[in-house]
Amino acid sequence: MLKAKDIMTREVHTVRIDTGMEELARMFIETGVNAMPVLDDSGELHGVVTETDLIAKDRPLHLPTVISLFDWVIYLESENRFREQVEKLTACKVGEICSTGVTTCSEDT
Predict the structure, then answer these.
(1) Domains of the chain with CATH codes
(2) Kind and range of the H or E element at 25?
(3) N or C: which end of the chain has fewer CB within 10 A?
(4) Do the beta carbons of residue 85 and residue 61 sit within 8 Å?
(5) pTM (2 decimals)?
């Protein structure tokens, strides 16, 4: 019978709950994985974060309307409001977007 140890990845890339979004995106790119376990301050499993979580589907970002004239970009809406939204999203930490309550098993399962 097939067991978890027969199909699991032993060298797992992890991330901490206080890791920022920019660092998380960089880690996904560098490691080539699309999900990572999230560890709390004591090294215990807190949850799992995926690349999809980075999309922040519950955090709408309104893209400003712009026009391009020659080499100029002219904002038809508040550029400052857009910047504030981007700063708010990037200030978020992994612990705020990850899935918690994950189910674990032993390697002999």
Answers:
(1) 13-100 (3.10.580.10)
(2) helix 21-31
(3) N
(4) yes
(5) 0.69
